[in-house]
Amino acid sequence: DGGITQSPKYLFRKEGQNVTLSCEQNLNHDAMYWYRQDPGQGLRLIYYSQIVNDFQKGDIAEGYSVSREKKESFPLTVTSAQKNPTAFYLCASRPGQGGHHEQYFGPGTRLTVT
Amino acid sequence: AQRVTQPEKLLSVFKGAPVELKCNYSYSGSPELFWYVQYSRQRLQLLLRHISRESIKGFTADLNKGETSFHLKKPFAQEEDSAMYYCAPRLDQGAQKLVFGQGTRLTINP
Fold first, then answer.
1. Which of B30, B31, B44, B58 could form an SS bridge with B89, CB 3.0 to 4.6 Å?
2. CB-CB: which of B43, B88, B97 is closest to A48?
């Protein structure tokens, strides 16, 4: 294990609060991704970033925000505007060079909002 | 529009029996295809990719462009194969992202 870390493993928040999930990688990968995983819906892409200081919306970006100030870090903020934030969140990265498109995943953060 | 479909949410087979997890995609070009697996209490990891034409843990997957399918197969299932499996193609030539199917939970019964 190692390479991509997400913290914390479990996170609890009250409704109406913003919360930031951490994702760090020491693989020197260029691209990073955020997904949410819900039962029966697979993985849905929230945001992704190909290089530092650049990111694009995925399929379900509403209510989320990201930043990519450093190559190794891609934090995700779940805002109070996200209508259904309770989910399992996965971060991934990939080299971005040489045509390699497989992604490497972190262990995930389970967020519960009550 | 649904671009990748795994029709079975749940699949249960007995140990030693053949197993096939189906994946169909919508794309007229040549996709790059992956299967990912998530074992209990482990992180999601790459199982195999079609360009390698390799067999990993006894699993193989053949790209059928005519049927736009990339089914995952294993001739003799083992109990340790029980896991969640995701088909994940890269559907557009310029795309820098994968599209994940809904996943199939495979259970191998002893």
1. B31
2. B97
